[in-house]
Amino acid sequence: KFCEKNILPCLFPTTMMPSLSNDSFYNMYKNKGVVHEAVALASEIIGYIKPGESVLQLFDSSSPSSVLASTSLKDSLRNQQIQVVDVDVNDALSLDSAINDINSKTYSTLSVWLNRDQTVGLLKDLNTKSANPSILLSTRFYGTSIKELPNNLHGNLSFIHSYEMPDRMKHLLIRSTGWFKAKRIYDDKAREIQANAYFSLKVAGDAIKHIRGYFYRDYFIEKIEHMIDDIPYTSIYPRIGLAPGQRFISKGYYLARIDPVKGDLVKVTDWKIPSL
Q1: Beta bridge partners of 55
Q2: Which of 65, 154, 183, 194 could cross-link to 258 by cystine, CB 3.0-4.6 Å?
Q3: Measuring CA to CA, which residue among 39, 109, 106, 33 is closest to residue 76?
Q4: In which element (H, E) is residue 27 found?
């Protein structure tokens, strides 16, 4: 809002909740954040859910990103006449009731918008001998480490993964990692944030070179719109693209599952765009 109000370009900030306003001209983002995750997850659900079945989703009312994701999923599935039942994990009675419903096979699909600790704690309470739900997670919330997940639920879990897979990430980020290491400021724990910062600076620098002294903000933005498709460095995403009027450079995702042999997170689809 600050950048848009003051007519200042804001290039690809790290945020899970970007502005989705159609009036946003000076703000450019990597993707639609948790709204993208929810729409991607909804696209997967409509591909297999049976008529009359409901989706149970767990969210954390103390987390704005979790609330936004749950609201977006509900809105996306409402248009498909699919009912979504919300459960706030901060409501102990509702949570206990939801777990009992899952264990009694009332719900066949479970969507989880919780962090790692919350998710692991929840899944350990499921009785997999009686329940066999499809459990959909987002790596934006949960992360990519699967060591703490119950082994008996590995076959039930699917993940929306909106950037490059872990086994390919190191190769993809060779350029940014090399630069940060050369400057002695590389932080492995902040690898993706640093990669996105490097990408933003690289785009800004290349755009300034191309405008050749015509330092007008609108022209600067238009140059970025036309150059993204050809830029060789794509940050943490396998593919990016932008056209005039668009403000999100990454629009796709992988559906990932746990490899039963290696125990790693692996993609089971190509990079694809949500169908909704």
Answers
A1: 84, 109
A2: 154
A3: 39
A4: strand 27-28
Q: Which amino acid is at 51?
A: P
CA contacts within 13 A on the Cβ side of 22: 0
The listed range with the strongest mean pLDDT (5-9, 92-96, 131-135, 182-186) is 182-186
Q: pLDDT grade, residue 35 (50/70/90)?
A: very high
CA pair distance 32, 10, nearest whole angstrom: 15
Which position has the higher pLDDT, 2 or 184?
Answer: 184
User: Does 170 score more than 90 pLDDT?
Assistant: yes
pLDDT surpasses 90 at 50? no
- Residue whose pair of structure tokens reads 């200042």 in the numeric block: 8
What are the start-end ranges of the E strands in 52-188?
55-59, 84-88, 109-113, 134-138, 157-161
CB 220 within 8 A of CB 211: yes
* Beta carbons of 131 and 108 less than 8 angstroms apart: no
Q: How far is CA 260 from CA 119, 123, 137, 265, in A?
A: 20, 18, 17, 10
Please state the pTM of the whole predicted model: 0.93
